[in-house]
Amino acid sequence: MGLELSIPPPPFAHLLRLSDDLGVFEHARGTTTWVENGYCTDDVARALVVLVREERHPPARARLASGCLAFVEQAALPDGRFRNRRARNGQWLDEGGSDDTVGRALLALAVAGTHGTKVQRRRALSPFEAAAPVYASPSPRSNALAVLAAVEVLGATPGHEQAGILLERAAPGLGRMRCASSWAWPEHRLAYANALLPEALVAAGAALGDAPLLEEGLALLEWLVAVESRDGHFSFAPVGGWAPGEPRPGFDQQPIEAGAMAEACLRALEASGDARWARETHLAAAWFLGANDVGVSLFDEESGGCRDGLEPDGCNANEGAESTLAMIAAFQAARAAEAAQTAARSALRTSAAGTVAAPTQRSAAPYVR
Questions:
Q1: CB distance 196 to 237 below 8 Å
Q2: Where are the alpha helices (DSSP H) in the chain?
Q3: pLDDT in tens, 199-257
Q4: What are the domain boundaries of the chain?
Q5: Fewer CB near the terminus (10 Å): N or C of the chain?
Q6: What is the spatial distance between Cα 294 and Cα 200, in angstroms, rounded to a whole number?
Q7: Does residue 109 register a pLDDT over 70?
Q8: pTM for the full model?
């Protein structure tokens, strides 16, 4: 069913509706922005990433990208941490966010620092270079985000000192595949944004030229795909995670899982050239369109938003920022995978016709066109 679904262009209408001059509001009631709940750096950082990855920058999106970058800049603290919670009036409500907030902020700054406008690149790299050398976290997902941030910058600027330090600091904290066990996952249970971990292993292996690490990342991602697949579609770990012996399918399944899976499979495609990863990228994006355990679409075509979770009898009707941004990221990944496959087929036809095609130079990070 998943491969029969055409992935639409990434929709930005609802994201713009969730936003104002300061940033992206975290929650919505239905399609109505819940402004009283304020903003968080986690979601503003996610928004910055998907915005600057687009080739076209209509005025409204360009303004939002600039506002999101300013938000992340203002969240930065002198000790390398980032504040997370912010009220509607602009007042910061915490002294520092979680380790994941740090990882998300670093990744957003890295992507803006490599794909943004000339001014955005200069602005983004300044706080990135201040925070990267002092980064430290025991959290595997924060370390995964930090690895992806470092690889993003190193892909554009080989030898970048602060990004190299960040990669050295974060990569050892990803966790490793349990090769001698039927439970290969580095944790006792699947938690959240699970595909981030194998994606970071793949990215680190490719960036470091470490073939065993790259193969381990690909093997762990293949294992996760097998565990989270059912009847030809993805069946993701629910809120609260999943471990062997617990019921399947589990609910509520979260859009962040599908978004992370799509991005990880695209990374695997670009690192390995194996076309099977294009199919898995498409299937992860198709989860939003009904290729899931309930057979319902989480994509609201009228609003352009994404519903907040897959439930046994349908969807959570709210369309918050995290869900909508995960869907946009998944659609971007699926379309990038399709473009990569089209380019590969064209290169094969050219080669078969007797012309040697020039090698494609890829960044270590996806979405570079």
A1: no
A2: 13-17, 41-52, 59-75, 99-115, 118-131, 140-156, 161-170, 196-208, 211-227, 255-272, 276-286, 321-352
A3: 999 999 999 999 999 999 999 999 999 999 999 999 999 999 999 999 999 999 999 99
A4: 5-13+30-37+174-349, 38-173
A5: C
A6: 30
A7: yes
A8: 0.93
